[in-house]
Backbone:
């Protein structure tokens, strides 16, 4: 296998270099200036050969479009938090399955090798909470002991992962995939034992701060610099792996591409499949469950001798039938984290194109003297913050719960990563005073939860001056909604069929995890929504 990879790398690199030389010989010229591209005598401005985005490992293309997002069935909870609205989602990539225990163990193994000897807290922060399986009146200790690490569960979805850990996994996956691409193309030597000072980071590499060395650089048409590193303009690196937005997840779950004729969607769906039932209507599989969920009181898997869903808790990620995009378990098995911060009425406020709530605009930190981008090379950096929790009364007491303030921290930067900061009006280079599309960094509570939308203003002339500290949602008093409450979608092995409707939505604190909540990654599609060969 190693020999094949090296052979392919040489062929790929030869193709790149050969294409660049052909481009140089062809003397393609700029349509706006007439100057030739790839000409050393013109400064060497390059136009590299590029076809389309490579599909990353584990991903499938979800062709975007318009759909009605939100409630598709009776709102049995009466939350009224998923009002139907027509929106458009761009094409994107999504994992074919949920992230498995084995994939997450690969992440833990790498993190332990790289950071364990010097910064064990980075590894500890990545560990799933296996104690989520415990229940007060149930014997679930076998899942505590075996579910994550035993090979019998290696193809099952990882659980006990909070929202922050899921995002860290996505960042790690981005770097490992792009590192492999460089190795495959013969540009980077494989490092069997990377350390916390020289492991590959895509962002750090692109800003010229990576501590490692390339095996070979790309040729350059700039006579002053005949060789260069890979740039974003080369199209070699893939975009970031990330969590899908709520709109993306819901759109992908419905899989309405299977019900589309021309521009007409012939049938709406309640679930990721056609019909109103949860059993397979096809003659070969008639009566079998389409997903892993709770059928009724105390019925998690059917009857002995006929285990209809063949799963007491979660099921292997390739169980059951995929939807029309080829995505497995978009209903049942485990619920899944998405990027969005929860607000009950986001659907009424968010944009019609690529709707999302959760923007906190950032920029890379730069040295105040020379303007170079800063990287964290010393130790993990944490952002400390205080938040309020509801502390219950004593055991067996009828005392009302009391609100207490606790201090917590979030890992915001680990060694070897580019450092980021929120944009600010205090920094002239951010140009916020001159912008029309945004004026500050944090838009999580925009129109629903920020100071301007608060209903707790005092009346009178001091109303505007007294806005500071006023909030829309009084956390732990009237609701559990705040800026660290994130949406999760879909039903799970612990849910009834109602939650398998992709339009339903729930939320959880980003620091919390459960035994029925997992995740899958997504990736932005750049360029054409459909790729080469399309008639459009």
Residues:
């Amino acid at each position: 296998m190693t020999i094949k990879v090296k052979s392919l790398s040489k062929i790929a690199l030869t193709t790149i270099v050969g294409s660049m030389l052909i481009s140089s010989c062809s003397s393609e010229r700029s349509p706006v200036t007439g100057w030739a591209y790839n000409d050393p005598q013109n400064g060497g401005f390059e136009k590299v050969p590029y076809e389309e985005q490579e599909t990353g490992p584990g991903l499938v293309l979800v062709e975007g479009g318009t759909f009605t997002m939100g409630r598709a069935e009776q709102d049995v909870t009466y939350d009224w938090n998923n009002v139907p609205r027509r929106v458009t989602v761009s094409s994107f990539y999504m994992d074919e399955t949920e992230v498995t225990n084995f994939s997450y163990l690969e992440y833990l193994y790498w993190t332990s090798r790289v950071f364990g000897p010097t910064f064990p807290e980075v590894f500890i922060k990545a560990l799933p909470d296996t104690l989520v399986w415990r229940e007060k009146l149930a014997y679930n200790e076998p899942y505590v002991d075996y579910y994550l690490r035993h090979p019998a569960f290696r193809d099952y979805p990882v659980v006990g992962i909070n929202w922050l850990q899921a995002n860290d996994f996505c960042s790690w996956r981005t770097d490992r995939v792009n590192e492999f691409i460089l190795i495959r193309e013969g540009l980077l030597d494989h490092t069997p034992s990377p350390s916390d000072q020289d492991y590959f980071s895509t962002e750090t590499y692109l800003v010229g701060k990576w501590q490692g060395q390339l095996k070979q650089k790309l040729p350059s048409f700039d006579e002053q610099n005949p060789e260069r590193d890979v740039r974003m303009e080369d199209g070699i690196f893939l975009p970031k792996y990330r969590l899908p937005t709520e709109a993306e997840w819901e759109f992908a779950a419905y899989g309405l591409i299977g019900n589309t004729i021309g521009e007409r969607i012939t049938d709406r769906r309640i679930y990721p499949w056609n019909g109103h039932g949860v059993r397979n209507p096809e003659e070969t599989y008639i009566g079998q469950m389409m997903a892993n969920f709770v059928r009724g009181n105390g019925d998690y898997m059917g009857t002995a001798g006929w285990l209809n869903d063949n799963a007491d808790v979660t099921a292997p990620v390739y169980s059951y039938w995929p939807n029309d995009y080829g995505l497995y378990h978009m209903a049942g098995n485990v619920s899944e984290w998405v990027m969005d911060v929860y607000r009950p009425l986001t659907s009424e406020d968010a944009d019609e194109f690529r709707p999302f709530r959760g923007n906190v605009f950032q920029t890379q930190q730069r040295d105040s003297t020379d303007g170079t981008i800063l990287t964290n090379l010393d130790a993990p950096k944490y952002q400390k913050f205080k938040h309020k929790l509801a502390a219950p009364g004593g055991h067996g007491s009828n005392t009302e719960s009391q609100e207490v303030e606790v201090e917590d921290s979030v890992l915001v930067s680990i060694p070897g990563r580019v450092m980021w900061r929120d944009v600010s009006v205090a920094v002239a280079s951010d140009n916020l005073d001159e912008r029309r599309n945004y004026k500050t960094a944090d838009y999580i509570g925009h129109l629903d939860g920020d100071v301007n939308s608060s209903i707790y203003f005092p009346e009178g002339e001091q109303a505007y001056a007294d806005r500071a500290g006023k909030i829309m949602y009084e956390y732990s008093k009237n609701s559990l909604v705040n800026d660290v409450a994130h949406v999760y979608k879909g039903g799970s092995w612990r849910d009834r069929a109602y939650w398998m409707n992709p339009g339903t939505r729930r939320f959880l604190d980003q620091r919390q995890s459960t035994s029925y909540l997992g995740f899958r990654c997504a990736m932005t599609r750049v360029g054409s929504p459909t790729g080469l060969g399309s008639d459009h």
